[in-house]
């Protein structure tokens, strides 16, 4: 299954708004996807979700720092480095996270759960809200 995980990482870094057809290479049609704000069932829902996410993305690259792989499932520790046209324009942003992946017998992902800090990702970067959150964190 190591080859499947390597293929997943390679394809994932090729994704952008015009290459969403690549999702079929790495996900089963009945994939279940979760992150801090969504739970999706099926490849069409996942394709739509990624389509919305990639709108406005100038660049996006995942650096995979480490992994644990037992053959049928894996955990990936990553840093997503991205630029967005409307979100902190021109600035390279980093988001740290972990993905739990479960593979089907044919080596495609049938379950994908992303774990990351939504506050660090969005809330702290919104001008007024971000300053309030940082103030609260400093008091803890």
UniProtKB/TrEMBL annotation:
Q: Which domain of life is it from?
A: Bacteria
Annotated ranges, domain SnoaL-like: 12-112
Gene3D superfamilies given for it? 3.10.450.50
The name under which this protein is listed is Transcriptional regulator
């Amino acid at each position: 299954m190591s080859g499947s995980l390597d293929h997943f990482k390679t394809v994932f870094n090729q994704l952008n708004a015009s290459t969403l057809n690549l999702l079929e290479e790495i996900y089963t049609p009945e994939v279940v996807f979760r992150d801090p704000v969504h739970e999706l069932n099926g490849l069409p829902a996942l394709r739509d979700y990624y389509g919305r996410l990639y709108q406005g993305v100038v660049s996006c690259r995942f650096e995979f720092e480490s992994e644990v792989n037992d053959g049928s499932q894996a955990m990936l520790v990553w840093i997503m480095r991205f630029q967005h046209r409307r979100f902190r324009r021109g600035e390279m942003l980093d988001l740290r996270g972990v993905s739990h992946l479960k593979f089907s017998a044919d080596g495609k992902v049938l379950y994908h759960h992303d774990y990351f800090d939504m506050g660090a990702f969005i809330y702290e970067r919104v001008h007024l809200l971000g300053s309030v959150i940082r103030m609260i964190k400093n008091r803890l």
